[in-house]
Amino acid sequence: VESASPFSGRLSDKIREWTDSRKVKLKHNNIYEDGIQGIFEDLETKIDFPEELYLANQFSVDFLEDGTITNIYSFFYGKDNEGKRRSFLLDYDSRKSDKMTVWLDGNVVSEYKESEEMNSLFEMMEHVNLQETIKEYEKDNLASSYYLKYFGYSDIYTNEKMTVMDSDGTRLPLDVVKSEKGIYQGYEIS
Predict the structure, then answer these.
(1) pLDDT tens by residue, 10-42
(2) What are the residues whose beta carbons fall under 8 Å from the beta carbon of 92, sequence distance 6 or more?
């Protein structure tokens, strides 16, 4: 009985895992072919997500030159149809398993800020040719593995390879995202 009490032993850990997490096989494991949407298609086979999702911290995907996803990490949340806050801690490491782990309904402090919404991630990824972008880095022999990170709306630290685009994918000059204080701001994918 004691080992089944919360945080008291192996049995309690297993019970918590069975009730508070879901394991989902990552079938769409190539970011070039399947994009971010493929990850969520796999997740939605076992998890019913709220219509609008918000970041609690970041969305991060690590992948190899050929697009094979090696790691995923994100913590996001939203309101279900009954108005209840639902949160999802997503973790995947291809060295450990071919399944993603999603911990359900953890503690989220954020308050549904527009700057944390995830729809912009999906919209931007429709206009980004990730494989072409990576080929530019391969020319310079800079890396053999890569990451994609999304933080929502934030201050942006610019560089010469940065591309600015509007919601329909039209490329714009860098100054478009410059605020009155001279800081660049916008929804950013690194």
Answers:
(1) 665 666 666 678 999 999 999 999 999 999 999
(2) 26, 69, 71, 72, 73, 99, 100, 101
